[in-house]
Amino acid sequence: MALLTRWSAPLVWLALLLALAVGGEWLEPLLRWSEPDARRVLYPQADLLTLLARHVQVVAIASGLAVVIGVGAAILVTRPGGRDFLPLVAQFASMGQTFPPVAVLALAVPVLGFGTWPIIVALLLYGLLPIVRNTLAGLEGLDPAVEEAARGMGMGGGQRLWQVELPLAAPIILAGIRTSVTVNIATAALGATVGASNLGAPIIAGIVNGNTAYILQGAVMIGLLALAVDSLFARLVPASQ
Questions:
Q1: Residues 6 or more apart in contact with residue 115 via CB below 8 angstroms
Q2: Domain annotation for the chain: domains and CATH numbers
Q3: Rounded to an integer, what distance in angstroms lies between the CA atom of residue 20 and that of residue 225?
Q4: Which of 94, 101, 103, 214 is deepest in the core (most CB within 10 A)?
Q5: How many CB atoms lie within 10 A of CB 33?
Q6: CA end-to-end distance (rounded Å), the chain
Q7: What is the pLDDT of residue 100?
Q8: pLDDT-derived band of residue 239, with 50, 70 and 90 as boundaries?
Q9: Which helix (H) or strand (E) holds 222?
Q10: Helices (H) and strands (E) in the chain, counts
Q11: Measuring CA to CA, which residue among 201, 187, 190 is closest to residue 48?
Q12: Residue 46 DSSP one-character state
């Protein structure tokens, strides 16, 4: 019972998300209220469950790459041989988030073409900063006495990293990943402007056609997905402390 209570919030948000994805017909009267004069209020171009799966896939790929690159780069520049590159890595991560995702898409489309890859590149660059920043903060903020104790136990550099530093820094690192993933769930909707098939498609179609019902379907599902993922991370972070 305690376990169910702990995970109740993510499960509730996920249940609402799936209910909206597969039960659109039941919501037609409510959507009709928001757009009474529209000929159609249910998004007709693609199944919402399919769009949800594609949205999750894009965010998962971009966030996975951001975690590997961001955490890996932060680890490298906190080692004795890589400290000279610490300012460069921090500045590069900051620069990635100062570029608007729309600008990144505009630059990526001529190289990668229309579709999914431009938004993956945009999300990757946009999601690096919180991951790099929090990983640096977690690793740099460790108590020196803990490091000395690990050395006194005969641990090498690799052992200290995997058995001491990363476990202690994990809550801060996970907080950065949480921020990155949650922001990218919303930002991924921009991919629909360059031909990516995700939950941004109903929003863009609603804007183009002046159909509020389409916009609501995409926006509410993105919001529920962000809430489900964010509440999931909220349970994981305390568990790692």
A1: 194, 195, 196
A2: 49-236 (1.10.3720.10)
A3: 11
A4: 214
A5: 10
A6: 22
A7: 77
A8: very low
A9: helix 212-239
A10: 12, 0
A11: 201
A12: S
- The dihedral through the CA atoms of 185, 190, 196, 201 has a sign that is positive
Phi-psi sector, 181: left (phi>0), alpha (psi -120 to 50), beta = alpha
Q: What is the mean pLDDT of the chain?
A: 86
Amino acid at 96: G
Q: Please state the rounded mean pLDDT for residues 172-197.
A: 92
Looking at residue 238, its pLDDT comes to: 52
Q: Whole-angstrom Cα distance, residue 191 to residue 226?
A: 17
Tell me the C-alpha distance between 90 and 70, whole Å.
10
* Average pLDDT estimate for 95-119: 83
Measured on CA atoms in the order 109, 111, 117, 123, is the torsion positive or negative? negative
Retrieve residue 211's tokens.
């159909």
